[in-house]
Write a structure and sequence with these properties.
two-stranded antiparallel sheet; 2 strands; about 5% strand; globular
Amino acid sequence: MKISTKGRYGLRAMLELAMHHGDSPVLMSSIAENQNISRKYLHALLTSLRSAGLVRSVRGSRGGYTLSHDPHQIRLNEIVHALEGSFAPVDCIDEEHICDRADLCVIRDVWADLSNAIETYLSSITLADLMERQKAQNAAQTMYYI
């Protein structure tokens, strides 16, 4: 599986929202500017993330976007699923009927194991974990420039 721009940018947008969790809603234009994502593309990403129940939009003069849950409760596999779909590297993992050899194919088992490994790894990381990594990286960069 190759993570597309959709998945990469969506994760960046979710991290941006996580960094502001507990504050007022974040404007889409602010996310777009901070993450260097076009507003049109970001709107499509946020729509998918909202449909998956990961973000919510707030209307009004103090409106914007917020996470639907605490960053400790949102796992990367949920975000990637919402934006990319299945982790399966081949179609026969999700749709066994498309291949006459699916029941006999040991290679299919390898692809299924790979899919499960990706799912397991991404489910072990939360947005809160990414926030900590981002804070550590920011601190290291600050110390480098001092």
